[in-house]
Amino acid sequence: MSNTTKGILLASVTALMWAILAIALKIILNHVDSYTIVWWRFTFSFFIILIIMLFQNSSSLKIVKRPPVILIFAGILLGINFIGYQEGVNYSGPAVSQIVIQLGAITFALVGFLFFREKVKKINILGFLLALAGLVFFFFQELGEKAENPVNMKIGIIWLLIGAWTWTGYAVINKLVAEKFTALQVNLFLYGIPMLMFFPFANFNSLFASHSIEIWLLLIFVAINTIISYGSLSLAMKYIEANKTGVIIILNPIITFIILEILLWLNVSWFDSVPMKLTAYLGATMVLAGAFLATGLKANK
Asked: Which one has a higher pLDDT value, 72 or 103?
């Protein structure tokens, strides 16, 4: 398997995990507040990574004695991204959140072209633009339909913009340090710093309340989701360019809505969901075709 194939597969795992995450969070937010969920996800992930490092290669933990400032900064940015996304879900809903938060991945893809000077063919650029246009087309009507409460919508979008662009900052740092540190070392800081950041805001009474087994399973899932998605992303950074990673990641809202359509078809009523219209399917096709063109062809050497 080539490095490009590995990178695309790993980035695709991240997109799939984030697509499912949006649905899981919509359910959990009815029982636990945003700050507590964020703290729980980072804490659970931090200790899993710590245990793996202790058994796999304890000497790699020496990095904690002299923590790199750049990784501390990346952890702070990722923590802000998490709370920005979850507050966006709270105020503007999961559909709009899935739209606006993609600006982080799109900006990261542009950084790949402009900052990292990644070489691309014209067909790759065309694919990127097609994916971006398809994303806008796909979600345009959702934005209009969800604007029933303008104040909440504005608050939510502000949170989401903060979350999106702090994610871009985190991703750029991750790309820069991908060759200097192992994925485990990077993620130890990415989880540990936000764990400390959000500890004062965590509501342990709501977290450890008498939840149903289904809610506890979802809480465990969103925590494991963090490990899988960001672990895959860190590895993907080593194998493929930033612009390809960004384009693949913007597929995750499309996957979310496909899953919602399947749930509707199966008459699953975990929450209210509106079926996609024909125009939405057209937009989804544009995104998928654009992502294929942007990631499927190698750049000129």
From this structure: 72
Q: What is the pLDDT of residue 145?
A: 53
Give the 3-state DSSP-derived string for 208-252, with helices as H, strands as E and coil as C. Answer: CCCCCHHHHHHHHHHHHHHHHHHHHHHHHHHHCCHHHHHHHHCCH
Contact predicate 249/229, CB 8 Å: no
Whether the per-residue pLDDT at 166 is higher than 90: the answer is yes
Q: Does the pLDDT at position 38 exceed 70?
A: yes
Residue corresponding to tokens 């990346």 = 74
Q: Max alpha carbon distance in the chain (Å)?
A: 59
What distance in Å separates the CA atoms of residue 104 and residue 76, rounded to the nearest whole number? 16
Which whole-number Å values give the CA distances from 271 to 23, 116, 154, in the listed order? 9, 42, 23
C-alpha gyration radius of the chain: 19
Contact 189, 67 (CB under 8 A): yes
Q: Which of 95, 105, 89 is nearest to 35 (CA)?
A: 89
Give residue for tokens 């990631």: 295
Contacts of 140 (CB under 8 A, 6+ apart): none
pLDDT of residue 300: 37
Please state the rounded mean pLDDT for residues 215-228: 91
Q: Is 4:239 a contact under the CB 8 Å cutoff? A: yes
Which pLDDT belongs to residue 42? 93
End-to-end Cα distance, the chain: 20
pLDDT bucket at 260, cuts 50 / 70 / 90: confident
d(CA 126, CA 132): 10
**Domain range summary for the chain, segments of one domain joined by +:** 3-113+149-246
Where does residue 280 rank: exposed (0-12), middle (13-18), buried (19+ CB within 10 A)?
buried
